[in-house]
Amino acid sequence: MNYKLHSLNSTQEKLLKEGEILPIMEQFYTIQGEGYNTGKAAYFIRIGGCDIGCHWCDVKESWDANIHPLTNIQDVIKNLEAYNAKSVVVTGGEPLIYNLDKLTTELKNKKIATFIETSGAYSLSGKWDWICLSPKKNMNPLSESYSKANELKVIVYNQHDFSWAEEQAKKVEGNCYLYLQPEWSKIHILLPQIIDYVKNNPKWMISLQTHKFMNIP
């Protein structure tokens, strides 16, 4: 784990390394708004900490893990059990900064499907039913991230992102779903361009942040 939290005692460092505690920014039950699993009910676990730093990120408050409480994963499990959740989405920040083996083992033991969204810049841990790889230019994904991705989701912010998306698509497996998603602040400019691009390149599909249209988390 390259990303460091400050002022941890030895016990906290051990528990964090083992994945028994995680800096949880927020947890909520909602509808998945993006990509392949759009429209499905899911419990979201957002983990704090990210050193990739996309300037257009809409959750910049997730970057500094030190401002989010270190939470025992057993407490996370208890929270989600209050809902009728059949699947969990682990996101960030960049969740793979941390060891997610124990969290996903607990979820799988309870017959809950596990989904993750990651930049792919860190080694994969955890047991996953679905891996959404959303690569970022600031820090390239590891080769294992491409080979294990079920879904490639590229955020389009400018014209160069189309050619960059094609470069990324060459690195994933042939059965990986390909999505282009307009960056939210420029959706009215970018969406018509993406529509034209997908019509001309039908291996791609369009992902929209439908949760923002629905005004839900």
Summarize this structure as a short list of keywords or feature phrases.
217 residues, alpha/beta, globular
Structural class given helices, strands, pairing?
A: alpha/beta
Q: Give the beta-strand count.
A: 9
What gyration radius follows from the Cα positions, in whole Å? 17 Å
Major sheet attributes: 9 strands, mixed
Q: Spans of 5+ residues with little confidence (pLDDT < 50)?
A: none
Q: What general form does the structure show?
A: globular
Helix share bin: 25-40%
Percent strand equals 15-25%
Lateral strand order in the biggest sheet: 3-1-2-4-5-6-7-8-9
Number of helices: 7
The average pLDDT is: 96
Question: What is the H/E order?
Answer: HEEEHEHEEHEHEHEH
N/C terminus separation: 29 Å
Task: Explain what you see.
The chain is an alpha/beta fold and 217 residues long. Helices cover 28% and strands 24% of the residues. The chain has 7 helices and 9 strands; from the N terminus they run αβββαβαββαβαβαβα. Strands 3-1-2-4-5-6-7-8-9 form a 9-stranded mixed β-sheet. It is globular. The two termini are 29 Å apart. The mean pLDDT is 96.
Element layout with pairings:
Blueprint: H1 10-18, E1 21-31, E2 41-47, E3 70-72, H2 73-80, E4 87-91, H3 101-109, E5 113-118, E6 130-133, H4 143-148, E7 151-156, H5 160-169, E8 177-182, H6 187-200, E9 204-206, H7 210-214
Parallel strand pairs: 2-4, 4-5, 5-6, 6-7, 7-8, 8-9
Antiparallel strand pairs: 1-2, 1-3
